[in-house]
Amino acid sequence: MFVIIGIVVVLGCVIGGFLLEGGHMGVLIQPIELLIIGGAALGSFIISAPKSVVIGTFKHIMHVFTGKEASASDYQDLLTLLFELLNIARRDGIVALEPHVAKPEQSSTINRYPNIAKNKQLAYFICDNIKCLLSEGIDAHRYDDLMRTDIATMHHHAMIAPTAVTKVADSLPGLGIVAAVLGIVLTMGKINEPPEVLGHSIGAALVGTFLGILMCYGFVGPMATNLEYQAKAQQHMLHVAKEVLGAFNSGFSPMLSVEMGRRAIPDDVRPTMEDMEGALRGKK
Questions:
Q1: Which of 165, 209, 160, 162 lies closest to 42 in space, CA to CA?
Q2: What torsion do the CA atoms of 244, 247, 253, 257 make, to the nearest 10 degrees?
């Protein structure tokens, strides 16, 4: 919703300001300029990136409109789920977690928290790293390094799409100039026409530069930034899970392990200790 509001604000202020200054909307409607700029941007993107990056980037672009910001309740669900799993391990032994982590989509415990279960990357991060504890004992520092490597790899992959979109955004002002130059070339062919014809043609050419810059700084660049924020937010949820699992492997109780994870959550979405005590009441 906020993305749509932002688009409306950008278009409303830019076009509204133009109209208030006495401009005519018809001058800005130049579909051929959009074809030149958009087509060249798409083609250059396909040239610059392998197939997997192109397809992955288009999939990620949809997340700009559908992505959901992690809330305090999401973090609370994450900590509560981890507490339940770790409590099972303490009560029945770590082997008791095997049915939950082997097939997380069938785990009644994990599926009680749909926001976490739907976040496949987070759910499988938790399960894969619990499997490491199931297979053999692992030194606390080695375990921490293992999870750090896992998070760094996933974050690097998540940043591919934002980086690709940023490169496309950077190319748009230059492609806008290309469209403008082509318009000027066409105008030179009309040099014997009346001034009003030449003025309209030059104006249409300059719209190409306008569109390239507007698309770069008003839409495509901000979309890349949005994807970066989403990647960092996902990385932070993984980091919280890492803190809880690492603390448990170091010998802390499930309750204290969860508290260590809670301290890693940003202040604006961090559940209070009272909230967590209420959520964990009856889960022991």
A1: 165
A2: -30
Q: Using only C-alpha atoms, what is the Rg of the chain?
A: 26
Q: How far apart are CA 177 and CA 69, in angstroms?
A: 37
- Distance (Å, whole) CA 50 – CA 86: 42
Q: What span, in angstroms and rounded, lies between the C-alpha atoms of 168 and 217? A: 11
Say whether pLDDT at 281 is over 80: no
Task: Read off the pLDDT of residues 155-191 as tens digits, 9 standing for 90 and up.
Answer: 999 999 999 999 999 999 999 999 999 888 888 888 8
| CB 173 within 8 Å of CB 221 | no
pTM score, two decimals? Answer: 0.87
Phi and psi torsions of 47, nearest 5°: -65, -40
E strands within 104-203?
Answer: none
* Sequence letter at residue 102: A
The C-alpha atoms of residue 268 and residue 266 are separated, in whole angstroms, by: 6
Report the alpha-carbon distance of residue 9 to residue 5 in Å, rounded: 6
Residue-wise pLDDT for 79-89, tens only, equals 999 999 999 99
Q: Do residues 62 and 95 make contact, with C-beta atoms less than 8 angstroms apart?
A: no
- Provide the pLDDT for residue 283: 65
Q: Quick one: 172 exposed, middle or buried, by C-beta within 10 A (0-12, 13-18, 19+)?
A: buried
| 8 Å CB contact between 144 and 246 | yes
And the tokens for 177? 């100039």
Cα–Cα distance, 220 to 187 (Å, whole number): 29
Distance CA 210, CA 173 (A): 8
